[in-house]
Amino acid sequence: MPRIEPAPTPLSEPFWEATRADTLKAQRCNSCQMFVWYPRDFCPECLGADLTWVQLQGTGSIYSFNVMRKPGNPMMGDEVPYVVALVDLDEGIRMTTNIVGVDPESVSCDQRVVVDWSVELEDGRKLPTFTPLPT
Ligand SMILES: [Zn+2]
Q1: Which of 87, 30, 26, 90 is nearest to 55 (CA)?
Q2: How far, in Å, from the CA of 47 to the mean position of ligand 1?
Q3: Which of 9, 43, 89, 115 could be disulfide-bonded to 93 (CB atoms 3.0-4.6 Å)?
């Protein structure tokens, strides 16, 4: 069963287009300089509407995670066990993602991670997942 593929919207399209080139992007507010995630029309901090898409470093730390031993939906049945995590990117964004390329039992909070582009969607976009940085 194929994975659910999120459809781009006019608002999120710059994010998805960047994933084709293994680039992680988010919006940044030109008024208060806060990074904005998920894609929005207005900055949630100052309500400014002057937002620019910028490239992120792609590094961060695991804030929290869960090892999924039963699939969250039938499409993930072949993937168990897999890790769903909240990753705090170094720019201050908290992103819901998967931790890949590692034994789920070795994942821990505060672990340093880097974006990984191994999950490709059918149309060439990629899902940004994360993998532990070598220690
Ligand atoms: Zn702002």
Answers
A1: 26
A2: 6
A3: 89
Report how far ligand 1's centroid is from the alpha carbon of 30 (Å). Answer: 7
Tell me the per-residue pLDDT of 22-62, one tens digit each, with 9 for 90 and over: 999 999 999 999 999 999 999 999 999 999 999 999 999 99
Q: Sheet harboring 35-36: ordered strands across?
A: 35-36, 25-29, 51-55
Contact call for residues 66 and 96 (beta carbons, < 8 A): no
Classified as helix, coil or strand, 5 is coil
The answer to whether 111 touches 97, Cβ cutoff 8 Å, is no
Cβ(55)–Cβ(26) below 8 Å: no
Predicted model pTM? 0.93
